[in-house]
Amino acid sequence: MYLRENQAASAALVRSIRAHRAAEYVGLDPHTMRNLELFTSGRDLRREGSLLATLDLTSTAMGARLLRRRLGQPLVDIAAIDQRLDAVAYCHESALRRARLAELLRAMPDLERLAGRIVAGSAQPRELVALRRGLELVPDLRAALGEGQSAVDSGFDARIAEIAVRLRACDDVVAAVAQAIDDEPGATLDAGNVVRPGSRKSWTTCG
After folding, report:
1. CA distance 46 to 53
2. Residues whose CB falls within 8 Å of the CB of residue 96, separated by 6 or more in sequence, listed in order
3. How far apart (Å, rounded) are the C-alpha atoms in residues 132 and 136?
4. What are 156-189's pLDDT values in tens digits?
5. Measured in Å, how far apart are the chain's first and last C-alpha atoms?
6. How far is 24 from 7, CA to CA, in rounded Å?
7. What is the per-residue DSSP string for 143-184?
8. How many angstroms separate the CA atoms of 124 and 128, rounded?
């Protein structure tokens, strides 16, 4: 209610609320994180030499943020820790799978930021095209996660199944953007070359 009355634009970004259960994580205060050099190292607090800098081989901005968040909030539940480790092991044990996933992730735009800008109504045409191209990679990501499994197995390895089921292709969004917006639009609406010829109706629907 408070957000709706005072920050309507921010309220539109909230799709669900989940309680933060402090007992699920190791409590790390800023002093402890500095001593452990999780994010900074040395007296000048540089990133180089920190645990984050050592581990951060992420290919996307989303992955980098997730890694930082997880380093700052270590799990305490052994089963949950093992589940994460099993997922990492599954992706790492096949060089072919690992290489394909890395290739796809390097091409993936920052979908989190793009989605936020779209919901806030501040996305530009090129960002909508970037969203479309990122979503077009989702089926390939799902296929890469299943690489090497039996052809008769319609599911995913249990270690990765929870992640795989969250990868939705969003074909309706891809189709709507592809039909309405040029592949190489102007940087802004005012720059022109945004709406694909013959797609005014689709553009009105998307708006």
Report:
1. 10
2. 147, 148
3. 6
4. 888 898 888 889 889 999 999 999 999 999 888 7
5. 26
6. 30
7. HHHTTTS-TT--S--TTTHHHHTT----HHHHHHHHHHB-SS
8. 7
CA–CA distance, 124 with 41 (Å, rounded to integer)? 38
Query: Closest Cα to residue 34, out of 11, 51, 20, 15?
Result: 51
| Single pTM value for the model | 0.80
Amino acid at 79: A
Assigned token pair, 67? 């890694």
pLDDT digits (tens, 9 = 90+) for 108-163: 999 999 999 998 889 999 999 999 999 999 999 999 998 655 444 556 888 898 88
Residue 41 DSSP SS3: strand
